[in-house]
Write a structure and sequence with these properties.
heterotrimer; A mainly alpha (558); B alpha+beta (347); C alpha/beta (330); B: 347 residues; alpha+beta; Rossmann fold; OB fold (Dihydrolipoamide Acetyltransferase, E2P); six-stranded mixed beta sheet; 23% helix; 36% strand; globular; C: 330 residues; alpha/beta; D-Maltodextrin-Binding Protein, domain 2; 2 domains; ten-stranded mixed beta sheet; 10 strands
């Protein structure tokens, strides 16, 4: 609405005090917590199913776990988390800095190419890397043809190897978010630093890095949540992690309760991790006022330029070129067997599902982020945290947590409305349930992208619009949406790629016959026929490349 | 009640710490006011309360007689028809200048909006830049866009939060006159927040001096300077020195340099110990005067020198002297005091 | 009442209802291994078969959560341990079928007829033909002997096939001897346990180790593509109880909607024609002893099966896992 001219406002109706204490104002007060609560229910319910149904520990199994599994498990998890954290930071941050601030040979191509590993599922990366670098793989076989033995060759199936492979698989999260932060303020940070007497490198450490911290931490937390929830990769490495212990308790010791208890512990650990980050960040705010025009990049010369190119190339080769090449070689061998119409069906369903899920998740992420923006209270902040926890829960456990309440609801509905009829499903096996399940899994991904962008809208920009007569959803539509465009697109693309790669929830909740590329890959890898799995994996990567490339062209993201 | 804006005993606090304490003032339609104070005095919070971004702890705010804010009630900002110009301008980077200015004109038909935007751009002198984007503009231009955007919907009241603080001094002076001209021409009622006296005096019909959340005085610039209500205002506004004195009559005081009598009565009993404010323009250079003081420091200000002078007792005062009287530091010069309006505060 | 009908009909739009000529199978056996059989059955009988594939754990939880409203008629999975667990959770119903009892030997099915083995795989010793003579090999227990120090490759103990093997050994030779044996294996390892059987076989071929344990069909898949693969199977424990075998199998779900059709399908799967397909597609042995194995599989020779009921793999699985944890078998 626009303001009426002053003259018409001369005789305002007298102020009615009571009117403003009626119900709507109560609703107004709790509107945003309510929105956040509804969204977080999608995650809260499955989590509650996991945590609450397993309150009594099985003493025999727990004693065994305490004696033989847990100490090593915690130790392993600690090193894995520290290792992958160090790995993704060492890969992601310097690459982001180089690409955002400097110019060196190949920079333009590295800019997008360094995001390619995002399209490759971690378990696919794992089986190709192990296939390449293990004793019986082509690399060591070739080396043995020239040397006596390859005992000196570092074993790929080791903690170090796992950390390396996971870092290569997950660094793009950090790279992507850090690059966007650096490219909007990196050069300026250097200049400010120089005016304060800091060298360029000191400027990076003391100004650019701390300023980019929320974005870097956002990427890091995504990477670590994926690390902790991962099962496929660690099982290829036969590494004892939380997820393998959960699966062992479930499948081998036949104690789903113990599995759920372990999963609850894992969720608690992650909650603490996220909360610690939040606490360490303290009350500092990271809003950037206004937007400076982009500054030209600094040109690197000589050895430094080639060092930069070399580093980027090395990472790219290890994280994408080699594994993808191996996939191509394998799929060439299995081409006749696997290349058929069904493959297009898998691809089409993968794309359809991922697109629908991505759009839905980003819409919900936007709502949640906006709720947090409108109501900065502790309750909404907590709910937003809870709503995004699903990303850290092992997929299969979350899938059970989702399916159990849906099946329960179905049973109630059937008993009430279809008693005696030949009906076995109302909600389960529908697309709607599947999409909601994806929301509880991937909200963290969409939310981190949208919220990062939301944080760059200044308070005064919002207030200016409110002053000019905008409120509620009109404000969202006319101010936030246009300003968030970049972040929203980033969210859509990141979620799209992630849903493409997802297996456990897809398998648990998909409608009959909804076989996707990931489901096909699971069927083949579960039988150990990696070479046959290679072709659907190649298609998965190629389809995933489309959004990844779009993402890389996205200038103004997050 | 013909005041457009009324603040009645308004209080506000952050985390239990009072930011505004029992503040009251009124603003008539068409008046321009300035809230003046050092940073952290609560002046921006007052604006945000009026705009509707902060809830009140006590008191109420009325606009055109309508109560818009009270404890437990806060009329939503977007319904108040109160415009605001932000310190960082808060322009929308995704919109060009014309769209920024037209942002608040949603209810209007296209043609009407276009006309209004065109008019506003003309008013602020930016018609040529209608299609430019904010990052392509200079600071002063961004400022004017922000002003045009705030004025476009014809708000009942305009708030300006340190609007010139991001600009260089030269531009600041020019723009503050220009903005006052625009506001007056539009008949706009406005409140500006600043920490710069010159700016406040140049812009405002009424100035409120704030200190630690208290409104020290609400008056015209002239009154503030010549009739400060408190020692803080006297000290904060303009320059000057406090000189010890004793009340020697209903309208007279005795300083170390003699007895002076005011045209107005003094509110202290005879014999009371007071401090008398000596403004630089109260101390007049007079070569023929028997009273002399030693030059301790001087600042060249173009047409004048600002001398720091030491009286025999060691007490220092400031003197504003035409700049053709160039005296060296250490030199003793003759002075006399012109104290028609005696300002005294209890010691 | 009216409202109820309206809501019911509204919900019915979304509700999937199973037609009578349809059989729903929950399967954790890889889809590419069962799809050809089901396609053949549908072609022959006109009965539609719907398959839901997932891991066995989630499928069992799914059956449990769905309870009497499960659309599933048959639960098909690999490894007797999983079949035992499903039975233990009460997910199956017993089947009276002379055909099934006649086709499937007693040691390959549940004594109470809750489930039936449909294909057999042996888990035995494999060795590098260039470095090991068959005469040097004997039994699972022998692999614990110090002579194999640094020469043994194993898959992870988290794998159900190893768990079943060790569980069977516990039943055969007792927990103490079994623990000693597994400890010996761990001492003899040439490298950290692998993530899958194929990797074990490839490591033996590459010379990383000389001997290892694997399921026969993994070997079959490699040899079918690469006849020169320098690894051979050795039938373990022929002087004792015989080589460890396990099954893939299926049972009728407790709340099956189409029990008759499901039993018919199981009977068909145990028949000569289907048994060949079922086993051959994956280089396994048919469960039906009247049916000959694939030529490649047959070329590995006849061997004595351990005739202990495969059910023991399930009942002693948790014990086996704890035992392996205790001796540090990763």
């Amino acid at each position: 609405m626009s303001f009426e001219p002053q003259g018409l406002k001369a005789d305002n109706p007298p102020f009615d005090f009571r009117l403003h204490f009626s119900m709507p104002s109560v609703f107004r007060r709790w509107r945003w917590p309510l929105v956040a609560l509804l969204i977080s229910l999608l995650t809260l319910i499955p989590l509650a199913v996991i945590v609450l149904s397993s309150l009594t520990p099985d003493p025999v199994i727990w004693q065994h776990l305490l004696d033989y599994a847990l100490p090593e498990l915690l130790n392993n998890t600690l090193w894995l988390v520290l290792g992958v954290a160090a790995g993704v930071l060492l890969l992601g941050v310097p690459l982001a800095w180089l690409v955002a601030v400097y110019d060196f040979p190949g920079r333009k191509h590295f800019n997008w190419a360094l995001m390619l590993p995002l399209a490759m599922p971690a378990y696919v990366m794992a089986f190709t890397q192990v296939g390449l670098f293990d004793f019986s793989g082509p690399v060591q076989t070739l080396l043995r043809a020239h040397f006596d033995n390859t005992r000196w060759f570092p074993p790929i199936r080791s903690t170090g190897g796992l950390v390396l492979v996971m870092s290569l698989a997950f660094y793009p999260y950090v790279y992507l978010l850090a690059r966007n932060a650096f490219s909007t303020m990196g050069r300026r940070a250097l200049e400010v630093g120089q005016t304060l007497g800091l060298s360029r490198s000191a400027g990076f450490w003391r100004i650019a890095l701390p300023m980019a911290r929320p974005w870097i931490m956002g990427g890091l937390i995504l990477a670590l949540m994926e690390t902790l929830a991962d099962f496929g990769t660690v099982s290829i490495f036969n590494f004892d992690a939380f997820t393998t212990a959960i699966y062992k308790a479930w499948f081998s010791l036949f104690s789903l309760d113990t599995a759920k208890q372990l999963a609850s512990l894992l969720v608690a650990l992650i909650f603490v991790m996220v909360a610690l980050e939040q606490y360490a960040r303290g009350r500092r705010a990271y809003v950037q006022a206004g937007r400076a025009a982009p500054l030209p990049r600094l040109r690197l010369a000589g050895a430094r330029a080639w060092l930069a190119s070399g580093y980027a190339l090395l990472v790219l080769v290890l994280a994408f070129v080699l594994p993808f090449g191996q996939l191509l070689v394998w799929s060439w061998g299995a081409l006749e067997q696997e290349w058929n119409e069904a493959l297009f069906g898998y691809a089409l369903r993968s794309v359809t599902l991922s697109m629908m899920a991505a759009l839905m998740i980003v819409c919900i992420a936007l709502l949640l982020s906006y709720a947090r923006r409108r109501d900065g209270g502790a309750l909404v902040r907590l709910l937003a945290r809870v709503a995004t926890l699903g990303y850290a829960v092992p997929g299969t456990v979350l899938a059970v947590g989702i399916f159990v309440p849906v099946a329960w609801l179905d049973n109630v509905l059937i008993e009430r409305f279809f008693a005696g009829q030949d009906v076995t499903a109302v909600l389960k096996g529908t697309l709607a349930v599947m999409l909601l399940a994806y929301v509880s899994r991937f909200l963290a991904v969409g939310y981190s992208a949208v919220d990062a962008a939301m944080n760059r809208i200044t308070r005064s920009q919002e207030e200016a619009a409110r002053n000019l007569g905008y409120s509620g959803f009109a404000l969202l539509r006319h101010v936030h949406l246009p300003l968030l465009q970049g972040g929203l697109l980033t969210g859509v693309l990141m979620v799209f790629v992630d849903v493409m790669k997802e297996m456990p929830i897809t398998m648990m909740t998909r409608p009959f016959g909804w076989d996707t590329l990931a489901v096909r890959i699971y069927g083949l890898t579960s039988e150990g026929v990696f070479d046959q799995a290679a072709l659907p994996a190649v298609v998965l990567v190629l389809v995933g490349l489309i959004p990844t490339l779009l993402l890389s062209r996205q200038k103004d993201v997050a | 009640m013909d005041a457009l804006l009324q603040l009645n005993a308004v209080s506000q606090a952050y985390a239990g710490k009072p930011v505004i304490d029992n503040m009251s003032f009124q603003l008539a339609e068409g008046e321009i006011a300035c809230l003046l104070g050092s940073s952290g005095c609560g002046k921006t919070t007052v604006l945000r309360c009026i705009a509707g971004f902060e809830a009140l702890r006590g008191g109420d705010i009325r606009l055109n007689g309508e109560r818009i804010a009270a404890p437990g009630y806060n009329k939503p900002a977007h319904l108040r028809a109160v415009g605001m110009v932000f310190q960082d301008y808060a322009l929308f980077p995704h919109l060009d200048v014309a769209a920024n200015v037209g942002f608040g004109l949603r209810g209007l038909a296209d043609a009407e909006r276009k006309a209004r935007v065109g008019l506003m751009l003309e008013v602020v002198g930016l018609s040529a830049l209608a299609g430019a984007y904010p990052h392509e503009l200079s600071g002063g231009q961004q400022q004017r866009v922000a002003l045009a955007r705030a004025l476009a919907p014809r708000p009942r009241l305009l708030l300006l939060d340190e609007p010139f603080s991001n600009l260089d001094v030269d531009l600041r002076q020019r723009l503050s006159h220009e903005v006052r001209g625009i506001l007056k021409e539009q008949g706009m009622t406005a409140i500006m927040v600043t920490h710069d006296q010159q700016e406040a005096f140049a812009m405002a019909d009424k100035v409120g001096v704030m200190h630690h959340g208290h409104l020290q005085q609400w008056a015209s610039p002239y009154q503030l300077y010549h009739e400060p209500a408190s020692r803080y205002v006297a000290d904060f506004i303009g320059q000057g020195a406090f000189v010890p004195a004793v009340i020697s009559g209903p309208q007279c005081v005795t300083l170390e340099v003699g007895e002076y009598c005011s045209l107005t009565p003094l509110a202290y009993p005879v014999g009371a110990q007071v401090d008398v404010l000596l403004r630089p323009d109260d101390v007049v250079h007079d070569d023929h005067s028997a009273l002399t003081a030693t030059v301790k420091g001087k600042v060249f200000m173009g047409s004048e020198f600002m001398y720091t002078l030491q009286l025999p007792s060691g007490q220092q005062v400031l003197a504003q002297v035409p700049s053709h009287h160039n005296h060296a530091i250490g030199e003793a010069i003759g002075i006399r005091l012109e104290l028609d309006h005696l300002i005294a505060f209890a010691r | 009442m009216n409202k109820k009908v309206l809501l019911a009909s509204l919900l019915a739009v979304f509700a999937g209802s199973a037609a009578a000529e349809e059989i729903v199978v929950y399967s954790s056996r890889a889809e590419q291994l069962i799809k050809p059989l089901f396609d053949a059955y549908s072609k022959e009988t006109g009965v539609a078969i719907k398959v839901i594939s997932d891991k066995e754990g989630p499928l069992m939880e799914r059956l449990k959560a769905e309870g009497s409203n499960s659309p599933a008629d048959i639960f098909l999975t690999v490894d007797a341990g999983n079949l035992w667990k499903a039975e233990d959770m009460g997910l199956f119903q017993p089947v009276k079928s002379a055909v099934l009892n006649g086709n499937i030997p007693a040691n390959l099915r549940d004594p109470d007829n809750n489930w039936f083995g449909l294909s057999v795989r042996a888990r035995t010793i494999f060795y590098n033909k260039n470095t090991v003579k068959p005469a040097q090999l004997a039994s699972y227990e022998d692999l614990a002997s110090p002579k194999w120090k640094g020469k043994l490759c194993l898959r992870s103990s988290k794998n159900v096939y190893n768990q079943s093997l060790v569980a069977t050994m516990i039943a055969d030779i007792g927990p103490v001897a079994t623990e000693r044996m597994v400890k010996g294996w761990v001492n003899n390892l040439a490298t950290a346990p692998f993530g899958n059987d194929t990797a074990v076989l490839e490591a033996i071929a590459a010379g990383q180790c000389d001997v290892g344990l694997a399921n026969t069909y993994y070997y079959g898949r490699i040899v079918a593509k690469n006849p020169g693969f320098p690894v051979s199977p050795f039938w373990a424990n022929q002087a004792g109880k015989g080589t460890h075998v396990n099954v893939s199998g299926a049972g009728i779900v407790r709340y099956a909607k189409n029990v008759k059709g499901a039993v018919k399908l199981l009977e068909w799967l145990s028949s000569d024609k289907a048994q060949n397909m079922f086993a051959d597609v994956n280089f396994e042995y048919p469960a039906n002893p009247k049916v000959k194995a694939d030529a490649l599989v047959a070329s590995w020779g006849n061997f004595k099966h351990n005739l202990i009921n495969v059910k023991v793999a399930g009942s002693k699985q948790a014990e086996a896992v704890m035992l392996m944890d205790r001796v540090g078998y990763k």
